[in-house]
Write a structure and sequence with these properties.
With 129 residues, the protein is α+β, with helices and mostly antiparallel strands. The chain has 5 helices and 4 strands. 42% of the residues lie in helices and 14% in strands. Strand 3 and strand 4 form a beta hairpin. InterPro entries: DCC1-like (IPR007263), DCC_oxidoreductase (IPR052927).
Amino acid sequence: MGAIILFDGECNLCSKSVQFIIKRDKDAYFSFASLDSEIGKQLLKAYKVPTDVDSLILIENKRYYSQSSAVLQICKHLHGGWKTFTILLVLPRKVRDPLYKFIANNRYKWFKKRSSCLVPTPDIRKRFL
């Protein structure tokens, strides 16, 4: 069983990140859902993710990861040199998360909101919940 990535469907950076992951996820390990979708809301509730979390969420092995932990856990499964970034997991979250939060807090200002949805190919469409 693979993992699920919940992302902000309105955010250009988040949507581009999903496309980036799909290209490097040769084993189709990840499935995707918007945080605001029905399935996204159900998963957030089922995994007891705090309601104030405005972050990329990874659900894997019956637990959730957020912020930098989610990004680094995702890197473990990407093809190419991306696995090397997991060495950063040795750093405490209080060291890793400020950069993540800074980017997340400015994502709409820097990358804007999406005006249209990605229209995935049938192969990719089946990976969205």
